[in-house]
C-alpha cells in the first residue's frame, strides 16, 4: 500500500508537540571489520543475528502508517546482504518513507581501481539509484589511510572509496563520509599528544589545538577524496562518567577501547574544537553536524547546567529496532526498555515528555537539538521568546545552522552541492563566535 505524502508534515507534527518520526532499523549485527570502537567487530564472539525481510517490511508498513519520515538501515554491515538491503530500501520508498538512509564500512569498494571492481560498484550504484535512498554513509575514521585501514581491518578500502565516488556521482548518489570521532583522526603517531591529564590550562589548550588540527586535516582529506558531504559520530564509549550507571546498550556499536573513551573534560574540549573548525569548511563540503548541538554538548560537559540542552526524542519520536529480537527500544542505548513490536506501538496519542540526555548519540541528539526551539515555540511561544533573549549565543548559532541546512538542501544526498549557495558561508570564522 502506498501512503500519500502529506503536505507540511513538520508543521502538523509540531502542533501536536511531535517531530516527524525516525526509526533506526538494525538489520544485522554481523560485520566483517575489526574496528576497536565497536562491539560488533568480526573478532567478538557472540551469536549473530539478522532480521528477516518480511519482518522489516512489516515495520516499514507500520512506520509509514504512523507518519514516520526517516528510516535508517544500520548494522553491523548492511551491505553484507546487498540484495535484501536494496529490496528494503525500495520497499521503504514505495511505502512513502521520505528520507531513507543506510551506510557501509566500504568493504565492497575495495578493488575499485580494477575493471571488475568498477563494474561491481556500478551495479550496486545503479540498483541504489533506482530506489528512493536519500543518504549513503561511508565510514572513514582517520585522515591517514593506513591508520583507517588498520583500525577497520580493511586494506585498500580508502583507494576503493576514491575510485567509487565518481561512479556513485554519475548515478546521482552523493555519499557522505562518516567520521566516528576517535583519538586517531589526525593519525596514530600523533595520538600521544591528546593523552595528557588536562590538569593545567596549558594541557587543555594543547588538547584542543591537537583536535582542531586533526579535524582540519580530516575535512581536507575528505574533500580531496571527492566527498561532498560529511558527518561526525560523537564518541560512544560505555564505561565512563554517567553512561556507566544509566545505560544498557542493545546496540553494540559501543566500546570501552581507549581510542573512543574520553573524559567529561575531554569531551567538552572536543565538542568545542569541532564547533570552531566547522565554519572554516562549511563552504567547501556539506557538513551535517549542527553547531548548535555541539554547543549544547560542550555546555553539558562543562557543567553549564543553567543552559541545558533540549532533551532527546528517543522513545518519543525516534526509535531503534534491534536485530537480535526484532523489538523496538527508545534508542540503541536504553536496552532495559523493550517497547515490543514496532507495529504494536501506539504513536497516536499526545507525546510523552522527552527528558533523556543520557548519551551523545548524534543520530537522535542532533535532530532533537535542532528541532528543540521549534517544538518549544509551537507549545509555548512566550517561554521560547524568554529563552532567546537570555541566551543569544545559542539562538545565533541555531539560526545559522538552519540557514546552512537550507543551503545544503537539507542534506539531500541525491543532489550535488550547490556551490553558489555554499559560497555564502565563506566568511571569517570570527563571525561565528
Ligand atoms: S563500526 Fe561498523 S564496520 Fe566497524 S565493526 Fe562496528 S559495525 Fe562493523
Ligand atoms: S540521549 Fe537519546 S539516544 Fe541517548 S540514551 Fe537518551 S534517548 Fe537514547
Largest sheet: 9 strands, mixed
CATH class group: Alpha Beta
| Integer count of domains | 1
Gap from first CA to last CA = 49 Å
Which residues form runs of ≥5 with pLDDT under 50?
1-7
Name the helicity range: 40-55%
Structural class: alpha/beta
Output mean pLDDT: 90
Radius of gyration: 21 Å
Using the 3D structure, state the CATH architecture: Alpha-Beta Barrel
* Order of secondary-structure elements: HEHEHEHEHHEHEHHEHEEHHHH
The fraction of residues in strands falls at 5-15%
In short:
The protein has 14 helices and 9 strands. The protein has 433 residues and is α/β, with parallel strands linked by helices.
Description:
The protein has 433 residues and is α/β, with parallel strands linked by helices. It has a single domain (19-432), classed as Alpha-Beta Barrel (TIM Barrel), CATH 3.20.20. The chain has helices at 9-15, 53-65, 82-95, 115-129, 145-152, 157-170, 201-225, 243-246, 264-281, 291-301, 362-379, 381-390, 392-407, 419-423; strands at 21-26, 68-74, 99-104, 133-139, 176-180, 229-233, 286-287, 318-321, 328-329. Helix 4 links the parallel strand 3 and strand 4 (133-139). Helix 9 (264-281) runs antiparallel to helix 10 (291-301), helix 10 (291-301) packs antiparallel against helix 13 (392-407) and helix 11 packs across helix 12 (381-390). Mean pLDDT is 90; it is low at 1-7. One iron/sulfur cluster is lined by residues 31, 33, 35, 38, 40-41, 75-77, 105, 253.
